[in-house]
Amino acid sequence: MITLYQFPRAWNIPNPSQFCVKLETYLRMAGIEYRVAETLPLYAPLGKLPFIEDNGQKLADSRLIIRYLQQYYGDSLDEHLLAEQRAQALAWQRLLEEHLYWVCMYSRWQYGSENWQINKQAIFQGLPQPMMDIVAAIYRLRIRGQLRGHGIGRLPAADIFELGLRDVAALSAALHGKTFLLGNRPSSVDASAYGILINLIACPISSPVKDYALSQAALVDYCRRMQLRYFPELGEPTFGD
User: Fold this and answer.
1) Partner of 20 for a Cys bridge, out of 50, 126, 161, 213, CB 3.0 to 4.6 A?
2) Which CATH code of 3.40.50.1000, 1.20.1050.130, 3.40.50.720, 1.20.120.450 fits the domain covering 2-234?
3) What is the pTM of this model?
């Protein structure tokens, strides 16, 4: 059986990590059996979570893991997609994972001391003091460097959030009147969308982007629908602070 290594659950959502949510959601959507092992990125192959262990090998990076799962366990989620829909899925995945994700990371790791303390407790909850503060401070510096390397971390907060608002508006428009991102059938891109969006609107991290997203009924309904369908044991997510 596949072992999924990820952070402990928090905030009444599947995981405080967007990509841990993405991968666990994909496993459930695809009907692939797995077990969860809670850990920290210190022990991960690439220094990040999630990663999996299957048939004696460890695999990291959610994109590469899903490609592996599709090859060895079948591609039941995306086999119905037309070429145009696959292109749309890739474009949405890039918006979600390469842009909106970083806006959310800025909100958690750099925007306000209260956000940082909430994020630190969720991510590093398994470590005793004073180790938690030391490890968290090291990772915060790393994330700051990654934000600057991406480019978004070099902008003023107002510009960062304006860019995030545009992402959210586009996603809201795309989901209007639809059950899933590409229509009435789920596909693998929904795992990515749910992972990013649930960590934007159903966690106690404040930002103008979150406030705007909460005003978009299509996004709130989508996250509620995804969680109740694929994580019924968690119940409805709690929206707002």
Assistant:
1) 50
2) 1.20.1050.130
3) 0.96
